[in-house]
Design brief:
Length: about 100
């Protein structure tokens, strides 16, 4: 499994697909997923599913380190996971 080196994984990297900043995209995506899943399954399940999906996405990035669509080199990113947890935490705090 490939891990991105902490110092080379930029907080403000412009590698996002919908929002230009990757970490902001992880934050917003996790917030929205937690909101949607909580509407269907309740708060605890919604938060857990949003975290699980974000974690599995990072594991996928670690095993498939090349993005054929954008050409970006990927890997498991702890900073992406932190951004996911921050988005989920904000949703949890607001609900």
């Amino acid at each position: 499994m490939k891990f991105l080196p902490w110092k080379e994984d930029r907080w403000l990297s412009k590698n996002g697909t919908i929002i230009c900043f990757d970490k902001l995209e992880h934050f917003a995506g996790s917030f929205i997923l937690a909101w949607i899943f909580s509407g269907f399954f309740g708060l605890a399940w919604g938060v857990g599913l949003a975290f699980g999906l974000g974690f599995l996405w990072e594991v996928k990035d670690g095993f498939y380190p090349y993005n054929r669509l954008t050409g970006a080199i990927e890997g498991f990113s702890w900073k992406d996971l932190i951004a996911n947890v921050a988005g989920i935490g904000l949703y949890y705090g607001l609900s």
